[in-house]
Amino acid sequence: MIPRRKVTTYKGFWLDILKGLISGMPDQDETIDLFRKIFSEYIGVKHTIFASSGRDAFILILKALGLKKGDEVIFPSYTLKNLAELTENAGFKPVFVPVSEDFNINPAEIKNKITERTRVIVATHLFGNPCRIGEIKSIALGRNIDIIEDCAHALGADIDGKRVGSFGRAAFFSFETRKIINTLGGGAITTNDDELFSHILKEFKKQRISKIHLIKKAFFCLVEQIVLLPAFWSFFARLLRNTTMKSIILKLYRAAHTTSRNSVYAYSGLQAYLGIKQLDNIEKYHRNRSFIAKLYNNNLDNSIIPLIGKSSRHAYYCYIIRIKDASIISSKLLEYGIDTGYGDEVMQVLDDNKATKVIHDQALELPMYKGLKIEDIKMIVRRINELLE
Ligand SMILES: Cc1ncc(COP(=O)(O)O)c(C=O)c1O
Prior knowledge:
Layout: H1 13-23, H2 29-43, E1 47-51, H3 54-64, E2 72-76, E3 78-79, H4 81-89, E4 93-97, H5 107-113, E5 118-124, H6 133-140, E6 146-150, E7 158-159, E8 162-163, E9 170-174, E10 187-191, H7 194-203, H8 211-227, H9 230-239, H10 243-259, H11 269-280, H12 282-299, E11 312-313, E12 319-322, H13 326-335, E13 341-342, E14 348-349, H14 354-362, E15 363-366, H15 374-388
Parallel strand pairs: 2-4, 2-5, 5-6, 6-9
Antiparallel strand pairs: 1-10, 3-14, 7-8, 7-11, 9-10, 12-15, 13-15
Helix pairs in contact: 2-11, 3-4, 3-7, 12-15
């Protein structure tokens, strides 16, 4: 069985966690400061603040922007549903804009949704593919609308050499277990805005992440890594084809991630240490992902391969193609031992826009992770081409 994703680790990852837990590293402020410095340098911004998840990072930014109850926040209509729910819980109104062929918000449709209450546009770089941020910025200009970049999938992506996460008023990143870098959960906020930075720092409850909490996070991460081993995953991937089992498994998965996420905005020295080690090698990881994507791009026939802006670098957090009958193809690929995702497993639709719904129904997530073997990629391509002939 070839799983579609894997937990992100490196050689010595578990040993570093064990040593860190024993040595008291979770309490080290210097490690967090060093990670903040090198992360800011890598993204090309003045400030970075770490939080306990990408979602917490997003809500921290939203609250720091001084929105009033009922103010509107524009989202692409194809993204993580929970972000819109959290926005509503915070007292603001999510408004949805259809996406285009690159899976990202369609700038041409944004103006139709702007009202006098619009205060924020969330510019998501979905699956790691930079959105058309230049056009989005021109729309926001002079309208008192802030741009928050959602870079949860896009660490390392750029446009004309400028990294995503440095274009908007602020941006947020995710370091969940299967993201481009994994620090046992966690997230980051980046900004060039001194005022916003001090405001968020003031809000930020600098509470220590407890050791027991870190152990819990490490435990869930290890379980996830084991479940995703080919031998186990072939069992779970089949269970996912059954609708009832699928909803039970997804509920359990979300519950595990929610209980392992801190409700305060804390981050630990140990997590920062894991982040530093991975950020040091990030260009190598990117070369590896781009190599896999190139093999797919060059060899897949009869499917729509990811559309990328001319001067963009895709981070390839996920590799998504579009085909008719994605769910049928996904089931057939499973019979050949290839695990793929479709429908809500890939991403959720947040309104009833037809174009977005078509994109959602046609999206098929192919295996993409560090260490995916060339012979496996060739086999995946061959099977898909056969099925689409
Ligand atoms: C598009 C998008 N934005 C934001 C997030 C939130 O990140 P986190 O899981 O760290 O809260 C996710 C999670 O995967 C996501 O898919």
